[in-house]
Amino acid sequence: MASVTKRLLKELQNIQREPPHDDIITLGPTSDENILQWRAVLRGPSDTPYYGGAFELRISISDQYPIQPPTLTFVTPVCHPNVNFGTGEICLDILKSRWSPAWTLASTCLAVHLLLSDPEPSSPLNCDAANLLRCGDTVGYNSLVSFYTRMYALE
Amino acid sequence: MDHIEFYRNFPLLPPQSLDPLKADGYIEIGEDQQCIHVGMTELSVKHTSKFYSRIIDECDKEVGWDNVESFDKELQIMTIMLIDEAKKEHKVYVDFASENFSSDIDENSVSMEFGLKKYMDVLRKKCEQLADCWALLDDVDSSLCVLQPQNPKRSELWRRLAVSDFASALLEVVPDLFCPQITVYGPNSIAAPLNAKVKGARGMWNGALSARANLEAIFDFPLPEPGSFNQKDIKLECGICFSYRAENEDADQICSSDPCAQPFHRKCLVQWLTTKEDTRQSYNTYFGKCPYCSENIIVTSK
């Protein structure tokens, strides 16, 4: 068995034994045929304008995993300074330069979940959302985000 | 041989309806012509009847049908019970689909051309040779806290034991060698002095005492009871591929920084370090950062 398959099966086993977080609603392979394609659904964190929404992520895993990081993209449109609204691309250091095999798919999803409540406006993929935050307009930012959450992501 | 010849050899085994690959009936065994009931779902005949008769014949004369434990549903695998001199039971598998013999004593399978009798003789000899090893391992399994393998097979001549809260020991037995080989794994501060004790106690193993008594004499402290640790308590698995043994190698490269002590396979760690820009390389030695604690880690590729 390829080592990537073995590791992913172990991760799946761990997820089933100990679900990682209440806000990770689903996390697992999309089909029985291909273990390199996973899907996750995250609940929007409470105390954020994402609350009440459910956000689907597509997880593509290369056969070099875990030496290479997985690719996570939002399927549900998300208004967030570090997420490309059109493509769902996520800008997060641990998915690129700071990746380490110590991360698992579960902990990576948690990091994305944390990114929702803790945006990083200095490296934006969505300038409009980032600019609102950078000039300190939290009220504007919150209402913009909750508008998109209600429009696309209601559970 | 074709299907017609096959059915001619077994007159009590008629093909079912129109499908020549399915059959249901009886075959006669031995001189007193006892019958066993046989149902076949997919008949594939690759060899002449001589080939099969030889195995049936060997079962008849050498193995004895009493020792044939079972057939699987598809009639592809016959299981034979082999009882060695120490009255231990071993299973021998005759696989008609892949045409080989295998057993739980030996992981490698042998082609059917080798002959069943000859194969059983080899196994008997092996049982004799390994009897002492198995006695020791049985003692270890019943009296010490074994972490791996979880359901040991007879062919597995190693055990991973819990030694203390952070350390585990790999115990390997070698046939004809008086004492087992012991290596302690864990954070450097714990494992290094214990390995020194093992080295110092070389040749002191006393076969008359139990495994526990011997090990406690070497380490000089009481060892944990069976079941007091489980695999999760002691890190055994490679932090990169998450498996314990890969390509027959243990995860024996251990991060030397103290609270971390994360094990890795040599191959996995080298593979990771070579992708990192901050890794320095001198000949086949890599100086980089542990993927878990970011402290310095050194590994030499083989």
Keywords:
heterodimer; A: 155 residues; alpha+beta; Ubiquitin Conjugating Enzyme; 4-stranded antiparallel β-sheet; 4 helices; globular; B: 302 residues; Herpes Virus-1; 3 domains; 5-stranded antiparallel β-sheet; 6 helices; 19 strands; elongated; Fancl (chain B); FANCL_d3_sf (chain B); RING-type domain-containing protein (chain B)
Quick recap of the structure?
Chain A has 4 helices and 4 strands, in the order H-E-E-E-E-H-H-H. Chain A has 155 residues and is α+β, with helices and mostly antiparallel strands. Chain A has a single domain, classed as Ubiquitin Conjugating Enzyme (Roll).
Q: In words, what does this structure look like?
A:
The complex is a heterodimer of chains A (155) and B (302). Chain A is built from four helices and four strands. Chain A is globular, with a radius of gyration of 16 Å. With 155 residues, chain A is an alpha+beta fold. Chain A has a four-stranded antiparallel beta sheet, covered by helices on one side. Chain A has one domain: Ubiquitin Conjugating Enzyme, CATH 3.10.110.10. In chain A, strand 1 and strand 2 form a beta hairpin. The longest helix of chain A is centred in the N-terminal third of the chain and has 15 residues. Chain B is α+β, with helices and mostly antiparallel strands and 302 residues long. Chain B has three domains: 125 residues, no CATH class; 76 residues, Roll (Ubiquitin Conjugating Enzyme), CATH 3.10.110; 50 residues, Herpes Virus-1. Chain B contains six helices and 19 strands. In chain B, strands 4-5-6-7-8 form a five-stranded antiparallel beta sheet, with helices on one face. In chain B, strand 7 and strand 8 form a beta hairpin. The radius of gyration of chain B is 26 Å and the shape is elongated. At the A-B interface, helix 1 of A face helix 6 of B.
